[in-house]
Amino acid sequence: MSGVTLDVLDALEYEVLWNFIDFFTVNTQIENGIDHLKLTERGLDSIWDDFGYWRRFGEADRNAILQLMEEPFEISKNDKIYNSHDFLELANNVNALKQNLDELTKTEIERKFKQILNKLVDMEMKAVTGDIYYRLKGLRGVRERYNDYLYPKQQKIFEFMLEKATNQGRWKNLNQAVESVLPELDSVLKDFDKAWINQKLEEKTQALKQAVQQFEEYKKNPPERKFYEPKTRDKTIEDWIRGLRMQCETFKKASLADDPSSILGNKLAYNTLYQPESIKNLLKKHPEIVEQIVVKNKKS
Predict the structure, then answer these.
(1) Got the DSSP string for 134-160?
(2) Most buried among 78, 161, 212, 249, by the most CB within 10 A?
(3) What secondary structure does DSSP assign to 159-224, as a single string?
(4) Which residues share a beta bridge with 171?
(5) Around Cβ 93, how many Cβ atoms within 10 Å?
(6) Predicted TM-score of the model (pTM)
(7) How far apart are the first and last CA of the chain?
(8) Is residue 73 within 8 Å of residue 24, measured between CB atoms?
(9) How far apart (Å, rounded) are the C-alpha atoms in residues 264 and 152?
């Protein structure tokens, strides 16, 4: 995370305000949400007219939206309940960061900025400004990899170490703990990687079959193209299918390789020459695990 400037924070504030309008505006007057009449009353009808396009909110628009956020709205979207005060808190956090930008260290700025971005991801917000869009996309990619691969593999390490400590007793220190079981743990992690690779190969293969089938159906009955629409949809779908084929080929090669990391590289964690140190560093970040596998030092 870098390059957190005032312009970036202005764009981030815009995203919070825009998503609030997107989430809470409804087409008819109902019990929850913001109806068009309320937008008109607050002088926000022009925002609704321009809705969906990049435009900077004026100060009057911004203040009117913040006032709306103070009202206790709740709305259900994607099987989740969202509260207007959640958006108000985000907007206030962004504004506080803007006000303190010159007083905070670079590390503090980046930490606070990332906290706000993670909240946007938690709330499944969209982004229409390029800079924020790509930052959110990157965070979502990191989360997907963590949830899909890293977290389960870390849990496998924890379970293995805890089971060994239970059956064989605790070790004197963390170095001894990792080094003494490394050959067996390495075998367990390789089995984990093999199972994960086969799972991803199956998922990508099924996705490819479905994409090809859908594209064939699409070509049989293509939608009528408006004169102003570019002829790019076919190429977009073809590129998507080509990408899936490449992923299938990669996972297929990895599934057959003696050393899958030679194919997948750093996609496979805890599988390099630095494996012992990587595992030790992971355990150090989880003292609740270490205290269960290492003998406590007796105070003299």
Answers:
(1) HHHHHHHHHHHHIIIIIHHHHHHHHHH
(2) 161
(3) HHHHHHHHHH--BSSHHHHHHHHHHHHHHHHHHHHHHHHHHHHHHHHHHHHHHHHHHHHHHHSPPP
(4) 294
(5) 18
(6) 0.65
(7) 46
(8) yes
(9) 18
pLDDT tens digits for the chain (300 residues)? 458 999 999 989 988 988 888 777 755 445 555 665 566 665 565 555 554 444 566 787 788 888 888 887 777 777 778 888 999 999 999 999 999 999 999 999 999 999 999 999 988 888 877 888 889 988 988 888 888 899 999 999 999 999 999 999 999 999 999 999 999 999 999 999 999 999 999 999 999 999 999 888 888 887 666 554 555 667 778 888 999 999 999 999 999 999 999 999 888 999 888 899 999 999 999 999 999 999 987 653
Residues contacting residue 135 through CB under 8 Å, at least 6 positions apart: 1, 117
Rounded CA-CA distance 277/178 in Å is 9
Amino acid at position 37, single letter: L
Distance CA 282, CA 30 (A): 50
- Alpha-carbon distance of 134 to 268, in angstroms, equals 24
User: At 83, is the secondary structure helix, strand, or coil?
Assistant: strand
Nearby residues of 75 by Cβ (< 8 Å), 6 or more positions away = 23, 24, 26, 32, 33, 81, 82
Domain boundaries of the chain, sorted by first residue: 6-128, 168-293
Distance CA 280, CA 278 (A): 5
Which tokens is 100 given?
A: 């303190």
